[in-house]
Amino acid sequence: MSPYHALMPLPKAELHLHIEGTLEPELAFELAARNGVALRYPDTEALRQAYRFADLQSFLNLYYELMAVLRTERDFEDLANAYLARAAAQGVRHAEIFFDPQAHIARGVSMGTVVEGLWRALEKSRQNHGVSTRLILCFLRDESADSALTTLEAARPHLDRITGIGLDSAEAGHPPAKFREVYRAAADLGLHRVAHAGEEGPPAYITEALDVLGVERIDHGLRCAEDPALVERLVRDRVPLTLCPLSNVRLRAVDSLADHPLPALLDAGLMCTVNSDDPAYFGGYAGDNFDAVRDTLGLGEDRLRELARNSFLASFLEDDEELRAA
Ligand code: ES4
Ligand code: ZN
């Protein structure tokens, strides 16, 4: 760790962060006890041992399993506050936070419990943590298009809390075009739009997310590197990519961090950002991801500053607010 970092982490925005993926083992056990929910693991150490993933699906299985401990508004408030405190300590000044309502509604936890619980932490986040926030509702792409439409309907009473929509969960076999209708409806409601694409899925899913869903950013987008014409388009249109280097290592999207295409993507002129995805599961928060790419990929201070600047430019902050934060 450089002395610079120790004194003052680079101010940054985090644009790719699943709040359910910030559930640390300690909090999972605390909430399990509070709510009388049984976990399959005897203790936090045993649970941490399960954090070895072969691919996206093997991670998602544990991610959905552990959500069982999240039951009340207070649980979601505590979860968000724990994330915001950790993020703030690593220089995050603005966070655009994904949540997966379908995964909670399926367990009998209502949209209102999730959104209003998260909101209790978010509405005080500037004051308590020095972090501005936005909420992005994600649809599970391995659920049906009808389920996504029903979920958007369920969110309608809470739209004053929600800035945009996203698309996550198992990518392969679930192309963006499946969600054409719900993205159209969200656009008509004035919501921002993003989608995971090109994490495990092919580069064609990135193109489809842009052309069919009208997304403003691509979450991950890692596999764009396989298609030079697509890279050219993303550069020309300044489409931000929300990359998550430690996530890519843990889910085996890359063989090792040293093989991560981030330096090549930056050299190609892409608007890259660095984010943590599911930090409790993947070994680090936003600052840890910055440290890792600095130490392992040899990114210099100019590149790190570019990444931090991109994160504010690619955010959904309004212009004046954005300048103050940056
Ligand atoms: C996710 Cl890493 C990742 N990819 C897709 N969906 C997700 N949900 C939570 N983390
Ligand atoms: Zn993600």
Automatic annotation (TrEMBL):
The active site is at 199 (proton donor). It catalyses: adenine + H2O + H(+) = hypoxanthine + NH4(+). Gene3D superfamilies: Metal-dependent hydrolases. Zn(2+) binds at residues 16, 18, 196, 277. It holds the Pfam family A_deaminase. InterPro entries: A_deaminase_dom, ADE, Ado/ade_deaminase, Metal_Hydrolase. Its EC number is 3.5.4.2. Binds 1 zinc ion per subunit. CDD domains: ADA. Residues 11-323 form the Adenosine deaminase domain. It is an enzyme of class 3 (hydrolase). Its cofactor is Zn(2+). The record marks 220 as: Important for catalytic activity. Keywords: Hydrolase, Metal-binding, Nucleotide metabolism, Zinc. Substrate binds at residue 278. It comes from the Bacteria. Catalyzes the hydrolytic deamination of adenine to hypoxanthine. Plays an important role in the purine salvage pathway and in nitrogen catabolism. This is Adenine deaminase. It comes from Streptomyces daghestanicus. The lineage of its organism: Bacteria, Bacillati, Actinomycetota, Actinomycetes, Kitasatosporales.
